[in-house]
Design goal:
Length: about 375
């Protein structure tokens, strides 16, 4: 069973992730994990924090001589900004630590609900963990998961299709083109005209002390038929992928394939007709289902989209209430981004990789890469004869 846990606060000493269940023998280089961390930090509209942090992973266990051992992989990402917060966030916090107390919850953030739930009257105790800074640890774990998936020619790519209403108008190109064009774009958009509009919208929001959300798309190629299951609700691939993506901070909606569009169409316009060709097997000319039917992967590329709301911290804050005095007060202002949609696309890629690796190992499980590969190849041989 593949599972992971993260720990750490936004301005704490470090983020830590433990990833358990990756089989032995997978070749993993820290440089590949660091490349994913660097991708997460880039993007037009990011804030000053990204100029401070240069995320690098330190593998503490589970990898030796460049290959996984089959034991838990522990990784640490130091927070460089800790130097400015060491007294405030110290585990034995003294009076000096009270200089950054938060009493004015931000609308749209976990501040108030979390404070009420955990009985914290200093809302910093909530916002530090609720912060999207935590996703750096998930990206590190996802970096390992996608290396594992690539051993089976499963590739995960992502790009931004909407920021603040500026929407891409081009047809989706090949995955190689998506990777190339999105990596070259400051907003991870493959459409140059939409990119210009997105940047203009970000500049407008920054000028007004506001924030912007948007939509990103994840495509996974090389997924075999049969991941997930129709037999129980919690084994459905679509449900598990949606949960993983929805768990990213500020994500408010997930669709698979042409999910929301299909609600307005006739069934004859939606469902992907099935064909068969000797030597090729079953295939479809369209992929409106996004690679999923009945909770099971159907062999077509997986396609997911996620809607991200505008970030909750505004430089020109909204009205709130002082939780001690109950008087009207403007919401707390923390250091923030104007938009983090480009970063969220990278995070989305990596949480999808983690979920797919988990489900892949459930089906083709083994303690070593060699054993998993043998199980996988046997299954492919079986399905090719169907």
């Amino acid at each position: 069973m593949l599972r992971y846990l993260t720990a750490g606060e936004s301005h704490g000493k470090a983020l830590v992730v433990i990833l358990e269940g990756i089989p032995a023998g997978v070749p993993v280089k820290e440089e590949e994990i660091n490349r994913q961390l660097a991708r997460r930090q880039r993007g037009y509209g990011r804030g000053a924090r990204m100029k401070i942090e240069q995320d690098r992973v330190e593998v503490l266990s589970g990898i030796r001589a460049g290959k996984t051992l089959g034991s838990p992989i522990a990784m640490k990402i130091d927070n460089k900004d800790w130097a400015h917060w060491s007294k405030i966030m110290d585990v034995a916090q003294d009076d000096e630590g009270q200089t950054k107390v938060v009493h004015h919850p931000r609308p749209g953030h976990a501040d108030l609900a979390g404070g009420m739930k955990y009985d914290h009257h200093d809302l910093r105790n909530i916002l530090e963990r609720a912060s999207a800074r935590e996703t750096a640890a998930r990206v590190a774990a996802g970096g390992v998961a996608r290396i594992f998936l690539e051993e089976f020619d499963i590739k995960v790519v992502g790009h931004v299709i909407n920021i603040g209403g500026a929407v891409t108008g081009v047809q989706r190109p090949s995955s190689k083109e998506i990777v190339k064009k999105s990596e070259e774009s400051p907003v991870r958009c493959i459409d140059p005209e939409a990119e210009k509009k997105m940047i203009a919208r970000i500049d407008e929001a920054k000028k007004n002390g506001d924030s912007l959300g948007g939509v990103f798309e994840i495509i996974v190629e090389g997924v075999p038929v049969g991941l997930g299951s129709h037999v129980q609700w919690d084994r459905r691939l679509d449900g598990r992928l949606a949960q993983a993506v929805m768990s990213i901070q500020a994500i408010k909606g997930v669709e698979i394939g042409n999910g929301f569009t299909s609600a307005n169409l006739f069934g004859s316009e939606v469902h992907d007709e099935i064909f068969y060709k000797k030597g090729q097997g079953y295939y479809r000319k369209t992929n409106n289902a996004g690679g999923l039917e009945g909770g099971i992967s159907n062999g077509m590329p997986l396609v997911l989209r996620a809607a991200m709301k505008p970030l909750s911290t505004l430089i020109r804050p909204l009205q709130s209430v002082h939780i001690i005095t109950k008087e009207i007060h403007l919401a707390t202002v923390e250091r923030t981004d104007v938009t983090a949609v480009p970063a969220a696309a990278v995070i989305g890629e990596n949480v999808v990789a983690l979920t797919l690796a988990e489900i892949f190992l459930e089906k083709f499980g083994g303690d070593s890469l060699k054993e998993v590969r043998r199980n996988y190849e046997g299954y492919l041989e079986q399905t090719e004869k169907f």
